[in-house]
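During the no-cost extension, the postdoctoral fellow (Dr. R.K.) reprocessed legacy sequence entries with the updated structure-token encoder. One reprocessed record is reproduced below for audit purposes.
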Amino acid sequence: MQKSKNKISYLGMITIIPLLLTSIFFNYSKTFGDPLKISTSGPVSFKKMEKLGVKANDTIYDPNKNLIYVSVSETSENFPNTILVLNANPVTVNTTIPLSSEPNQLGIANDGSMLYVGMDKIESIQRVNLNSQTQDILFPLGETVNTQDPVLRAIDMVVVQDKPNTVIVSMKGQWDNFYGTKIYEDGVQMEKQIDSYSNVQIEPSELVTKVYGYDSETTLAAFSELLVSDDGLEEISSNYDLFRDLTSSYLKEIKFKNQYIYTSIGAKIDPVNKSVAGHYQLQNSSVLGPVAISPNSERVAYVTPSDKSTFDGSGELMIVIYHQKDFRLLGKAYLDRIDTYQELNRPIELEFLSDSKLLLLTEQKDLYLVDVEILGFQSFLPTTLKDFQLPLFSPGIYPMTDKCTEIPIKDGDELLARVDMCATSVEVLQNGDMKFNISWTSYFFSNQINFLRKGSDVGNTNMNVRDIVGNRYDHIGLGGAAAETTYWYSDGETHTGWYLFPAAETGATTFYFHDDDQGVIISDIVLKE
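Re-encoded structure tokens follow.
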């Protein structure tokens, strides 16, 4: 959709709005039988789910020692203001490490010797010696340049590989403003720091001296590489398209494990080549949940709105587990309404403790242990990866629902009108070419607008389709409102058109329709029988 220069009367200048623990530890426990609605298909089944009796701010798992570290809120009835140390298999209390007030964000050294704890109420980091299980140094985060927002808190931490005395901290103020990424050695802030938004989230990399950063706060969606040097931290590269092209929503979480980055929208990223290595088919990736990778990297798990939920994520949630390498769904379980994404108890963290146990943390600080049963999944896998990569769709019409994006028409901050752009269906022709049928519906909110106009997209390469494995398709034919100048004169008026694209590459079943003129994407268009 090509832009017009008149921002009031024309459709242009558009932006997106778019444990088996002691009895005293449990204050609630429930084993889910039928209410869990166990999926009967697939090699994974879910056995039970238990709510653990603490209010937790953060958790971190040390697979080398098989221990779970939990920062327990001061509001918790059990073990308040402590680091609760749990044995992971079976889950039992190991010990507690008392702290001063409201321990929150956690970071752990890769050798398991040091734990770093964000202490929100005193704007500091507490280092804990895990060998002696005692408090070590306490150091302040520093000061902000904003006198109206002076209180700093850690929102993400990475301990530098093989340097347990050095930690990188991403931080915000009390009003949720981002204040950059700093690096500390034995509690002393090093000389070089980073102030950009590119590193709201930070993750380790395949190299000791490199860390990955991601901007989950703005539409820039920048993915950065950070260099750890003797005098601090510096940004060595930044990529603004790696994640932005995948979704119209902000990406809320990335996790790095064994050379890959796993994202909350289901995309698996090769960070070295800066490319998409594949995609786990989530029910609704516009409503973002946590992601977890099993210790042996064979499985990937998500909490998502269930297939019974509405488009905005209201209703039931489910845990889904995929095979990491071939992206096949191994099993799913409904969570019997832990709560909905529309309320305050949405899941925010998910962690594999083993191939058969998951730890789930919610926004209301509730901590759950989920048991799954593995039924010899290897026998369910295809004999070769090629068998799995064959397209799963054939010629025919594939109708779509709720595959839309909004294009706002604004004058300054005033919303004058909106156009809803939707993919209504995709027709796969006998030769494999894909005909995307699109509708545009206008909504007028101001008498300043008499009409909207959309120009012809003939020759417009900014209208294109991309798939989950990184291929781009430019249209080879178009018709209706896609090929002509179209006017909307009334509220609720709809025009339709279509774009023809070449046949999909092998392995592609999910597509993203791009209107790069307007900067919008219609995500998760799945062609699957």
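Confidence is low (pLDDT under 50) at residues 1-42, 339-344, 375-392. The two ends are 30 Å apart (CA to CA). The remaining legacy entries will be reprocessed before the final report is submitted.
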